[in-house]
Amino acid sequence: MRLVIYNVRYGTGTGLSYHLPFPFSGSLRRSYRRFESIKSFLQGLSPDLVGLVEADNGSYRQAGICQAKEIAKAVGGESHFVVKYRDNLSRLPVLKSQGNAVISRVTPLKVNCHDLGRGMKRNALEVEFNDFSMVLVHLSLGKTSREHQIGALKEICTSRKGPLILAGDYNTLKGSDELSPLIEAGMSTVNKSGIPTFPCRRPRKELDFILVSEDIEPQGFFVPNTYLSDHLPLVCDLKIRKSERRDSNYGLLSS
User: Fold this and answer.
1) Which ranges carry the Endonuclease/exonuclease/phosphatase domain (predicted)?
2) Which phi and psi angles does 52 have, rounded to 5°?
3) CA atoms within 13 A on the CB side of 253
């Protein structure tokens, strides 16, 4: 099974011009043209599973088109999207279209949204399949909130029986040691060399991770050099070992 994790920055691009005429003004750009390149890039990787961080669910930037659904059409599968904010922020214009999505060639059994308890970006998307589960995250920039969120993820890890993938943009600005609670919970990174993923052109920080439980075997891993976003993508081929799964009760989200 090939998994791709990619923070696509809503398809709004990168570079110094992103912050002109004022900081982060590039986030207001129309995105559909660049997103076509992102879609083609992902299609060329032939993924079975995609974790799309900072996806646009159909704001004016994307001319009302859901990016996750477009990728699902391209790779042959279905998508599940969740707004990454909670409460009032999730209802504001543009922000209500900002979130994360899982695209899969296999129809999931259940889909759930976890509130990680602290921070603006606090929703984690869990998708359960027959043989494994995947949790996709985009953690807070604030260290204290991020520590709380990692603690909440540890609870999710310890409550699961069966293969688990925990992936996304962790914003580990203080280094990968921030993830030690998850390592203690039995997860391990597939990026054994600690290849940095941010910023894309001269990567210095390892912000994006694929963590797997001990019953998932990485069989190949690489970080493509592509400059379609400010992050680099992660590509990993995984083998899921069969194991007994525990029943769980999740709420179903619409795709």
Assistant:
1) 6-231
2) -105, 110
3) 19
The per-residue pLDDT for range 128-160, each reduced to its tens digit, is 999 999 999 999 999 999 999 999 999 999 998
pLDDT at residue 86 tops 50 = yes
Residue 45: strand, helix, or coil: coil
pLDDT in tens, 36-53: 999 999 999 999 999 999
Q: Which one is the CATH code of 2-240: 2.30.110.10, 3.40.50.2000, 3.20.20.140, 3.60.10.10? A: 3.60.10.10
Which tokens belong to 136?
Answer: 């996709």
| Strand 78-83 to 208-212 pairing | unpaired
Give the three-state DSSP class for 120.
coil
The pair of structure tokens assigned to 90 is 């999730």
In this prediction the pTM is: 0.92
Structure tokens at 125: 């998307």
Which stretches of the chain are DSSP H helices? Answer: 32-44, 67-75, 143-159, 180-184
